[in-house]
Design a protein that fits this description.
The chain has eight helices and no strands. The two termini are about 35 Å apart. It folds into two domains: about 1-70; about 80-175. Helix 2 (about 25-45) packs antiparallel against helix 3 (about 50-70), helix 3 packs antiparallel against helix 4 (about 75-90) and helix 4 packs antiparallel against helix 6. It is mostly helical and about 180 residues long. Helix content is about 80%, strand content about 0%.
Length: about 180
């Protein structure tokens, strides 16, 4: 259910764009959809994650500029800024605190050597930097409809591929069944 709620604003944005071909209208619908998503999250969990809040602020600011100035260029920057901020956050965790963001998110279910957590974290930094750059390339070198498709399907697909690759990499460092049975 959480995954559906998380993706609902972008799916609504995509549907409105596909039905109308109007990026400004789709953005105008995205803003309240994202606000409602955050309100729902707050009511049901009593917390909002920092990155959700940053995403909301960027949707409101860049989406608001897109609608107010009738210029779709602003909303096209949002995925890049979000990805680059995620990347900076992950990079900062390499130097601040004892654990990286990746380790904090995953260590309850997975035990890995410290150096592997750091490598995975840096892989996420590189992934976020690449995603932000690819978004700009698609946004400003292809037509608007291609960018909208890429925003939903391309970015989601690339993220799934990266997560699968990360899982395969992690599996090399996880204890085998016979090792866990001996303990």
């Amino acid at each position: 259910m959480k995954l559906l709620i998380d993706f609902l604003p972008i799916v609504i944005f995509f549907i409105v764009y596909k039905m109308t071909g109007d990026l400004i209208l789709a953005t105008a619908v995205l803003i309240p959809a994202t606000m409602l998503q955050m309100a729902y999250t707050w009511v049901t969990t009593k917390k909002i994650e920092k990155m959700q809040l940053i995403t909301l602020v960027l949707v409101v600011v860049l989406g608001g500029l897109t609608v107010a100035l009738q210029d779709g260029q602003f909303i096209k920057w949002k995925p890049t800024i979000v990805n680059w901020l995620f990347g900076l956050g992950f990079l900062g965790s390499q130097f601040i605190g004892k654990k990286t963001v990746v380790q904090r998110l995953m260590e309850k279910g997975v035990q890995l050597p410290h150096r592997i957590w750091r490598q995975l974290n840096l892989a996420w930094v590189a992934f976020f930097a690449a995603m932000g750059t690819i978004n700009l390339y698609v946004a400003f070198n292809f037509d608007e409809a291609t960018w909208v498709d890429f925003k939903l399907f391309g970015m989601l697909g690339l993220t799934f591929v990266f997560i699968i690759a990360q899982g395969l990499y992690m599996s090399r460092y996880m204890p085998k069944d016979s090792e866990t049975e001996d303990k």
